[in-house]
Design goal:
five-stranded mixed sheet; Glutaredoxin; binds FE2/S2 (inorganic) cluster; single chain; alpha+beta; 3 helices; about 120 residues
Length: about 120
């Protein structure tokens, strides 16, 4: 099957049972800010933003999954607003470049592999 809605990538930000659950002592996820920035910067047609239920590796909240045609990059412990800002900046720069750029070293320090 094919879809007319082709994107360069998808960013799934977890706010499941653990990620972003500040009442359980987990770091906050700036969901409304992310949605606003994604809209304001016109990113949606190029890079899908998905606010997700549990993605699986709950022991390393907050989890973000970045999927592209080339690979899936899982990030864990995205525990500060600055990381979300970095993700938005990276998405905007990728849109401008017309391709998914490499993630910064700061973000890649949070890379995890959830598979055996
Ligand atoms: S709640 Fe985010 S990985 Fe489970």
């Amino acid at each position: 099957m094919t879809t007319k809605r082709l994107v360069m990538g998808q960013v799934s930000v977890c706010i499941g049972c653990c990620c972003g659950q500040t009442d359980r002592g987990k770091p906050a996820v700036p969901v409304e800010w992310l949605k606003t920035e994604w809209r304001r910067r016109g990113l949606l047609k190029n890079i899908q933003l998905t606010i997700s239920g549990c993605l699986g590796p709950c022991d390393v909240p907050n989890v973000v999954l970045i999927a592209t045609a080339e690979e899936n990059v899982w990030l864990g412990n995205i525990d500060g607003f600055e990381y979300y800002r970095e993700i938005v900046e990276w998405a905007a720069e990728s849109k401008a470049a017309g391709r998914m750029l490499p993630l910064s070293k700061d973000l890649l320090k949070h890379r995890l592999d959830p598979f055996r």
